[in-house]
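Please go through the protein record below and explain what the tokens say about the fold. Record follows.
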Amino acid sequence: MTKINRRRLFGLGAAGVAAVGTGAYATHALLEGPPPAAAASTSDPVPFYGEHQAGIVTPAQDRLHFVSFDVTTKKRAELVDMLQEWTVAAARMTQGKDAGTFGAVGGAIEAPPDDTGEALGLPPSGLTITIGFGPSLFDGRFGLGAKRPAALADLPKFPAEDLLADISGGDICVQACAHDPQIAVHAIRNLARIGFGKVSVRWSQLGFGRTSSTSRAQSTARNLMGFKDGTNNLKLEDAALLRQQLWAAPGDGPAWMDGGSYMVTRKIRMNIETWDRTSLSEQQQIFGRDKGEGAPLGGKHEFDEPDFAAKGADGTPTIAVDAHVRLAHPSSHGGARLLRRGYNYVDGSDGLGRLDAGLFFIAYQRDPRKQFVPIQMELGRTDSLNEYIKHVSSGLFACPPGLRDAGDYWGRTLFA
């Protein structure tokens, strides 16, 4: 069994001591599963400890910095030690503290600071930091092969994708979401600094303008094509559906994933210039929704249930058979749903005057084999939207459950 390096506990300072003192409450929370806590305002902190990791059902923040790491150390003990250090730093940063005990300016002048400093004076801004482990981490280097969940099966080759290997996959991912982009970047930068010599950045992605709402208290956001996105997906208020569709349950797989979830990422480049020259009528037929209100065609309001049997005066379906909303709807996939946390991205231009822009799609679910895979297979085959998009990056990660208290750390149950 791997034990936590107790030296790491001191990095939490008073916050860590307080968390240890509430261990009984944390254990109760694990058993009872209270509703996820959220920041009271966009400047306030989000609790770090709990039954599930923050950053999944947490009301989606406006900014994202996502990174995928390759593990470079060959020593299991070094990897565990780094995960302990990461956990302490993450717990501190999400509460608005520096990444390390002495911060950006409090240590010895001759030594590198414990924090990079760009978040000095800034509030926590609702920062959440969520970790996941990729299939490649279970390749035998660290004796984890027998603990690889069946649900972490490699994604199949989908139609209409052209993946780039250098921006796909990875051993460990970290998702940092915040309402201030500097806070999200600060979090990733410091974890990469702490992990130097043990991990290296494989790829990363900045995102802005959330394209999904994870709470019914949030308005539905728009993607760069101008349409409301993810209307019918899971929300944090859907308690029964979350148990059924989002959280891994005992018996699903190895016990270390009980209460966790599986994350799929897809970088979807949009042919922005071609889309912008397409008529409004065709755009709406492609999505199957009204662009202004977001209502399904034939309906009046965004959350009206789509009527897939309705036909126009000419006898053709009001919502086309290859419309995105029809193909992605739960009724087309045995009720399968996803919890989405997507973000818009613009990565400059491609040198030919075309924007390198689109959607960085993030979806959480209980089992990708039964949820994301069948949905995306159908979309890849017949979605009329495929003329305007291309999937260029893909990732799959097992996100373990939340941490009990300051004596816990990311990956403890996996490496036990």
